[in-house]
Amino acid sequence: MAARPPDPDQLDLLTDCAMRALPVGALPILTANLRTHPCQKAEVPVMRRKLLALVAALSSLPLTLAAAPSAHAADPTTMTNGFYVDPDSSAKRWVAANPRDGRAQAINASIANTPTARWFGSWSGTIGTATGAYVGAADARDKLPVLVAYNIYNRDYCGGHSAGGASSPSAYANWIAQFAGGIAGRPAVVVLEPDSLGDYGCMTQAQIDERERMLTGALAEFNRQAPNTWVYLDAGNPAWASATVMARRLHEAGLRQAHGFSLNVSNYLTTAENTAYGNAVNRELSARYGYTKPFVVDTSRNGNGSNGQWCNPSGRRIGTPTQLGGGAEMLLWIKVPGESDGNCGVGAGSSAGQFLPEVAYKMIYGY
């Protein structure tokens, strides 16, 4: 069925605005400044979605200017203006509850106001409502939210500190489908199931196959329901598996469907170490499977690297704040500095995810 052309009475204005909303190189850019253009009267995120819809309509017409974009080609970083700061992070909540604490000012300035991912799991309530509310709040501010899906069946099966997750593979499939549906067409970044591909040491081949099917199914849901989301399938860290092994695991878990892969989530290895590892994984992917993928690095706690311990080590330091580029496609704060890795190290007696202000404060200064 042929696409219906846009209203001719609105075509000139909307086409002008649409050209401004596209990435450089997609279509010719007009010279007038968007700040003084009539299209600014519309709320920015709403107008942007309307403009992208117009572009989609135009691309389906029999024009020869450009080929129609693929169904999953949108770039959420160009649809937004910077990263979203979670207003309800554990660091934000602690600062709000302890404004007179001598550590509060430093924690607020150096940690709480840095864009950091929000993690979603069984604690998040109705998951589609939760993800929808979060990306909706970010979208209203024209910011890019980073979300972590952390609810796979048999989560942290071998490590145990963060054990839990969905009650069955089918329960997970339903959960992740609702997760993606809550995001829908709004721009977002999702880190998919940290540790899931490194956590194989005590698993049977049947359990590994089951996990890979869950991840492949999850990626399919995001491609189907969340076309403006970049999903990064987690690939552990350089100390966990060789690049050859990780490339195989990523491929078998459906990496070809994902935008990319994530490294160093909740770990401490340097950005240089992770960049070298990510490039090595890509060399293996290229040699064995004929493709490569961009990757992101969690820099939240890698400012002075690892001391060989992964669970609440002492003397660690915050790393480069969330940004585009920096050796990887993005450097992201995926873990909130100061949140415990579990009942271990300088977090003895704490539970995974609990905010420890003294750990956070010392991490700012690296002692």
UniProtKB/TrEMBL annotation:
Per the Swiss-Prot or TrEMBL record, the active site comprises: D195, D341
Gene Ontology molecular function terms on file = hydrolase activity, hydrolyzing O-glycosyl compounds
Binding residue positions for substrate: W119, W240, N267, W310, K335, E339
Enzyme class, top EC level, equals hydrolase
Q: Which GO terms describe its biological process?
A: cellulose catabolic process
Q: Which domain of life is it from?
A: Bacteria
Cell membrane in keyword set: no
Q: Which UniProt keywords apply?
A: Carbohydrate metabolism, Cellulose degradation, Disulfide bond, Glycosidase, Hydrolase, Polysaccharide degradation, Signal
Report whether Disulfide bond shows up as a keyword of the record: yes
Q: What InterPro entries does the annotation carry? A: Beta_cellobiohydrolase (IPR016288), Beta_cellobiohydrolase_sf (IPR036434), Glyco_hydro_6_CS (IPR001524), TAT_signal (IPR006311)
Per the UniProt entry, the Enzyme Commission number(s) are 3.2.1.-
Question: Which Pfam families does the record associate with it?
Answer: Glyco_hydro_6 (PF01341)
Q: Which family does it belong to?
A: Belongs to the glycosyl hydrolase family 6.
User: Could you identify this protein by its name?
Assistant: Glucanase
Species for this entry: Streptomyces viridochromogenes Tue57
Lineage runs:
Bacteria, Bacillati, Actinomycetota, Actinomycetes, Kitasatosporales
